[in-house]
Design brief:
The chain is an alpha+beta fold. It contains one helix and five strands. It has one domain. Strand 1 and strand 2 form a beta hairpin.
């Protein structure tokens, strides 16, 4: 099952919105979020922290601070 959403992220004092979708696979779920025209995949690691799975994030020039801001928001959503 998939659910579509917009994720608000505040970075450098500016609020941006990123399109995303939540896909569930049994008890596992992944967030697919579009950043700079690229779909990045976020899921929990063994320590239950979110991480980005998409390869080549650094090579494609996506700001690591933006990735961390997205991870922080996903962690906060999970804690609710």
């Amino acid at each position: 099952m998939e659910h579509y959403f917009e994720l608000p992220v505040t970075i450098n004092g500016e609020e941006k919105y990123f399109k995303g979708r939540l896909a569930t696979f049994g008890y596992v779920y992944k967030f697919y979020i579009i950043v700079d025209g690229q779909e990045l995949v976020f899921e929990k690691d063994d320590e239950q922290q979110y991480r980005v799975l998409s390869e080549g994030v650094k090579e494609k020039g996506i700001d690591p601070a933006l990735i961390q801001a997205i991870v922080t928001i996903l962690d906060k959503l999970h804690d609710r």
